[in-house]
Write a structure and sequence with these properties.
The chain is 51% helix and 12% strand. By secondary structure, the chain is mostly helical.
């Protein structure tokens, strides 16, 4: 959620878990944010690679916006408030 809200480029170190849950989350997030997300698996991450990715992100611009609503809680609260008599 932080990646979507801040619109800043991000590096994700993907934990390799048997259930692949994190991989699914990263794939969905990557489909939304595109090149603003760099992903590296934990078995392949090195200090040098991480430094390269972070330095590259410093050169990228903040994304203009993503097609994901990040203000769900206020919208839900307003909806339920409007249901009150």
């Amino acid at each position: 959620m932080d990646i979507l809200y801040t619109r800043l480029p991000a590096v994700v170190v993907l934990r390799e878990m048997a259930d692949k849950e994190q991989q699914l989350h990263v794939e969905r997030l990557s489909a939304v944010v595109g090149s603003n997300l760099s992903v590296v698996s934990e078995s392949q991450v090195t200090a040098e690679l991480l430094a390269q990715l972070l330095l590259a992100n410093l050169q990228r611009e903040k994304a203009s916006s993503f097609a994901v609503r990040t203000k769900g809680a206020p919208s839900a609260a307003r909806f339920f408030y409007n249901l009150l008599p």
